Amino acid sequence: MTVYLPIMLNCSDKHCVVVGGGKVAERKTLGLLEAGAAVTIISPALTPRLAELSDNASVVWLNRNYAPGDARGAFLVYAATDDPAVNEEVAREADSLGVPVNVGSHAEAGSFITPGVLRRGRLTVAVSTSGAGPGITAEISKLLEEMLGEEYEVYLDFIYEMRQEIKRQERSPEVRKRLLKRLGTLNVLDEIRGGAFTAWDSEQIKTWIAQHREE
């Protein structure tokens, strides 16, 4: 079994290439766009959704088959055609250029795989079964979706703002560490779930920091 390194990759404005225009290519493209990538699709045909993205200039569409050199200069490449031979050709070229490549028809032929993803604002949870099957991955992702509700988006925004204010207002590393540890004990998540939480204003945050600075 191949052991993959989990990693969160910043694809914002990065040139990413998707070879293929079917349902698999559509899923890969939508994931890249969600991450802010600049996507080029190479395929003689597109799904209706991909055609719509091309029409509104959300992606660049090269209306042709893959050709040698198409992987050059890419940040990531997805080989997502329905022809395994073409996908492996794409993978070989990408590997020769040192470009990370994902192969939809044969995961082991690529250098990375794309996990199932659950997002709740700042929270991102990735699920991979290392080839056991997309259906199992989807089942696990569904369980996590039920466990990690939308309240986590509000909660993590609150925690992020508090951490930023603690770092801004407190110069002492020891005191910052103490405040950040104390922050983790707040019962905010239950308040959000119960509908009793109101976002703190700057004065409330300042008061909380002052009250717990010496504890």
UniProtKB/TrEMBL annotation:
<dbReference type="InterPro" id="IPR036291">
    <property type="entry name" value="NAD(P)-bd_dom_sf"/>
</dbReference>
<comment type="pathway">
    <text>Porphyrin-containing compound metabolism; siroheme biosynthesis; sirohydrochlorin from precorrin-2: step 1/1.</text>
</comment>
<dbReference type="Pfam" id="PF13241">
    <property type="entry name" value="NAD_binding_7"/>
</dbReference>
<dbReference type="InterPro" id="IPR042518">
    <property type="entry name" value="SirC_C"/>
</dbReference>
<protein>
    <recommendedName>
        <fullName>precorrin-2 dehydrogenase</fullName>
        <ecNumber>1.3.1.76</ecNumber>
    </recommendedName>
</protein>
<dbReference type="GO" id="GO:0043115">
    <property type="term" value="F:precorrin-2 dehydrogenase activity"/>
</dbReference>
<dbReference type="InterPro" id="IPR028161">
    <property type="entry name" value="Met8-like"/>
</dbReference>
<dbReference type="GO" id="GO:0019354">
    <property type="term" value="P:siroheme biosynthetic process"/>
</dbReference>
<dbReference type="GO" id="GO:0004325">
    <property type="term" value="F:ferrochelatase activity"/>
</dbReference>
<dbReference type="InterPro" id="IPR006367">
    <property type="entry name" value="Sirohaem_synthase_N"/>
</dbReference>
<keyword id="KW-0627">Porphyrin biosynthesis</keyword>
<keyword id="KW-0520">NAD</keyword>
<keyword id="KW-0560">Oxidoreductase</keyword>
